[in-house]
Amino acid sequence: MQINTLIGSILTLTGSIFLFLGALGVYRMPDLYNRMQAGTKATTLGTMLTLMGIGVCHTEWIGQILILIIFIAITNPISSHALARAAHFKGIPLTEKSVIDKLKEKESKAEVK
After folding, report:
1. Under 8 Å between Cβ of 9 and 53
2. 39, 25 contact by CB (below 8 A)
3. CA triplet 89, 91, 96: central angle to 5 degrees?
4. 66-76: per-residue pLDDT in tens?
5. How far is residue 79's CA from residue 82's CA, in Å, rounded to a whole number?
6. How much is the pTM?
7. What backbone phi and psi angles, to 5 degrees, belong to 94?
8. Which residues contact 47 (CB under 8 A, 6 or more apart)?
9. Does the chain have fewer CB atoms within 10 Å around its N or its C terminus?
């Protein structure tokens, strides 16, 4: 077994573990906002590691894979943030265990002015 294949397999396995943990976080978290945060962070890292593993195994694809990794690193957090703000403005409640809501505080300060 070549060293590239071994390293690529380890990276792909690690990425798969992060993707599984992201799915588990989506299942276990109490509200939409926590689920979105757990899913986004774990799937961003998991997808990037999986793609890196494929890139190490198939070095001729490394250019396209780096473009995909950059695209995922930029778009995944931005889309998650946009969805969370839309859900908040729609009125989807936080869990009762939530201690603070910074966006609600910011909105109430803006209304006072």
Report:
1. yes
2. yes
3. 125
4. 999 999 999 99
5. 5
6. 0.83
7. -80, 165
8. 15, 19, 72, 76
9. C
**Angle between helix 32-57 and helix 62-90 axes, rounded to 10 deg:** 180
Domain count of the fold of the chain: 1
User: Tokens 């396995």 map to which residue?
Assistant: 13
Q: Rounded CA gap, 88 and 76, in Å? A: 18
Please, is 39 exposed, middle or buried when counting C-beta atoms within 10 Å of its C-beta (0-12, 13-18, 19+)? buried
What is the domain range of residue 13? 3-112
Q: What is the CA radius of gyration of the chain?
A: 18
In this structure, which amino acid lies at residue 108? S
Residues 83 and 36: their CA atoms lie apart, in Å, by 9
